[in-house]
Amino acid sequence: EADIYQTPRYLVIGTGKKITLECSQTMGHDKMYWYQQDPGMELHLIHYSYGVNSTEKGDLSSESTVSRIRTEHFPLTLESARPSHTSQYLCASGHTGAGNTIYFGEGSWLTVV
Amino acid sequence: AQSVTQLGSHVSVSEGALVLLRCNYSSSVPPYLFWYVQYPNQGLQLLLKYTTGATLVKGINGFEAEFKKSETSFHLTKPSAHMSDAAEYFCAVSLNTGGFKTIFGAGTRLFVKA
C-alpha cells in the first residue's frame, strides 16, 4: 500500500484567508488526485495529475488550484476561503500498473468561518 | 463514460447476519472495480479490487465480491457481520483507457445491530 500523508488534518480559518492543503506520497506514484467530500456524502473529483507538471480539473468545479512540481507532492490551494469551501478534502495516489488502484490519505477537514 | 450506482444509501443488519451491499456499474469497456471502506473521520481504505481473471475476489476483513459482467454488478458480501464492520462503503470503477480517473458511487452506510 501507499504511504500518503495529508496536513493539516483539521483546520479552522476565517473567510478570505489563503490556505494550502499539503499532500505527499512516498511510493513514487505517477497519478495523484484530490477529492472533495461533504459529511456523509459522496466523493467528487476536483483535481488530478498524471505526473510532474500535469494537472487537470475534475468533474466537480472547484475554486481551488493545484500544482505538481515534484512527483511526491500535490498541494491544493484556496486563494480566498469562503464558508462554502467547508468540507473534507481527500488526497489519493496511484500507479498505472496497479490496475488503477488508488490509495487515500486520511483527509483534511476544512472549516471556514 | 463510466458510472457507478450503489443501491441503498443505508443498510442495517444484525450482528452475525449476512452483509450484502449492491453495486452496479456502467462502462463501455471492461472496467476495473473496487470496494473501499471509510470509518468516521478517516480516508478510504481499499477492501478489494477486480482487474482481470477470477471473478470472485476476496478482500480484507472477510469481505468478498463477485464480478458479474452479464449483470454489470459487483456486489459486496460478508457471511457474518461484526460490530466493527459498521462504516461507509464505496464502490468505484476505473478504466485503463482515455485517462485514469476513478469514479465513486454515492456510498452505502452499513449499520450493525447487536
Describe the protein's architecture and organization:
The complex is a heterodimer of chains A (113) and B (114). Chain A is mainly beta and 113 residues long. In chain A, 0% of the residues lie in helices and 50% in strands. In chain A, the strands form 2 sheets. In chain A, strands 2, 4, 5, 6, 9, 10 and 11 form a 7-stranded mixed β-sheet that branches. Chain A has a 4-stranded antiparallel β-sheet with strand order 1-3-8-7, with no helix packed on it. Chain A is globular, with a radius of gyration of 13 Å. Chain A starts with a strand and ends with a strand. Chain B is mainly beta and 114 residues long. Chain B contains no helices and 11 strands. Chain B has strands at residues 3-7, 10-14, 19-26, 32-38, 44-50, 56-58, 64-68, 73-78, 87-94, 102-104, 108-113. In chain B, the strands form 2 sheets. In chain B, strands 2, 4, 5, 9, 10 and 11 form a 6-stranded mixed β-sheet that branches. A 5-stranded antiparallel β-sheet of chain B has the order 1-3-8-7-6, with no helix packed on it. In chain B, a hairpin with a 5-residue loop joins strand 6 and strand 7. The N and C termini of chain B lie far apart (41 Å). At the A-B interface, strand 4, strand 5, strand 9 and strand 10 of A face strand 4, strand 5, strand 9 and strand 10 of B.
Summarize this structure briefly.
The complex is a heterodimer of chains A (113) and B (114). Chain A has 113 residues and is mostly beta strands.
DSSP strand content of chain B: over 45%
Cα gyration radius of chain A (Å): 13 Å
**N-to-C CA distance of chain A:** 36 Å
SSE-based structural type of chain A: mainly beta
Beta strands of chain A, count: 11
Helix content of chain A: under 10%
Largest sheet of chain B: 6 strands, mixed
The multimeric state of the shown protein is heterodimer
| Rg calc of chain B | 14 Å
Q: Outline of chain A, from the CA principal axes?
A: globular
Could you list the spans of chain B in which at least 5 consecutive residues all have pLDDT below 50? none
The largest sheet of chain A is: 7 strands, mixed
Gap between N and C termini of chain B, in Å?
A: 41 Å
Count of DSSP H/I helices of chain A: 0
Secondary-structure element pattern of chain A, one letter each:
EEEEEEEEEEE
What's the total number of strands of chain B? 11
Helix content of chain B: under 10%
Shape of chain B: globular
Give the chain pair forming the largest contact, with residue counts. A-B, 28 and 25 residues
